[in-house]
């Protein structure tokens, strides 16, 4: 790819991305921290479900920072619980004596 072709590709991608819009929020009670925490905890299951059904992993519209904070906290707690619960099984298999 030449420089001009590459720069034209980048310019067209930027112009196309500039046209992207978000749908207008239709609710006044946007999900906040607690729903973000719950949605983060079930994010893995929602991701799998979204492959087969029209499910959104992330709520729209949301409350902004607090929803994001709850989502990340819930996701991290879920992953931490899965890792800690599997460590005992893995450790038992590795230290098992015959």
Structure description:
The structure is a single chain. It is built from 4 helices and no strands. The model has no long low-confidence stretch (mean pLDDT 82). The protein is 64% helix and 0% strand. The longest helix has 30 residues, at 65-94. By secondary structure, it is mostly helical. The chain has helices at residues 3-18, 33-41, 43-50, 65-94.
Please sum up the structure shown.
The chain has 98 residues and is an all-alpha fold.
Strand and helix layout:
Elements: H1 3-18, H2 33-41, H3 43-50, H4 65-94
Mean pLDDT: 82
How would you describe the shape? flat
Structural class call reads: mainly alpha
Query: How much of the polypeptide forms β-strand, as a percent range?
Result: under 5%
Question: How many strands, which pairing sense, and closed or not: the largest β-sheet?
Answer: none
Low-confidence parts: none
Q: How big is the Rg?
A: 21 Å
Order of helices and strands: HHHH
Task: Give the proportion of residues in helices.
Answer: 55-70%
**Total number of beta strands:** 0
Q: How many H/I helices?
A: 4
How far do the termini sit from each other?
A: 61 Å
């Amino acid at each position: 790819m030449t420089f001009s072709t590459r720069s034209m590709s980048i310019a067209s991608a930027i112009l196309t991305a500039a046209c992207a819009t978000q749908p207008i929020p239709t609710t006044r009670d946007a999900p906040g921290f607690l729903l973000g925490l719950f949605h983060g905890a079930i994010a893995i299951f929602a991701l799998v479900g979204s492959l087969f059904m029209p499910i959104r992993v992330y709520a729209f519209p949301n409350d902004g920072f607090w929803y994001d904070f709850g989502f990340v906290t819930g996701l991290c707690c879920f992953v931490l619980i899965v890792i800690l619960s599997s460590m005992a099984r893995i450790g038992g298999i590795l230290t098992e004596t015959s």
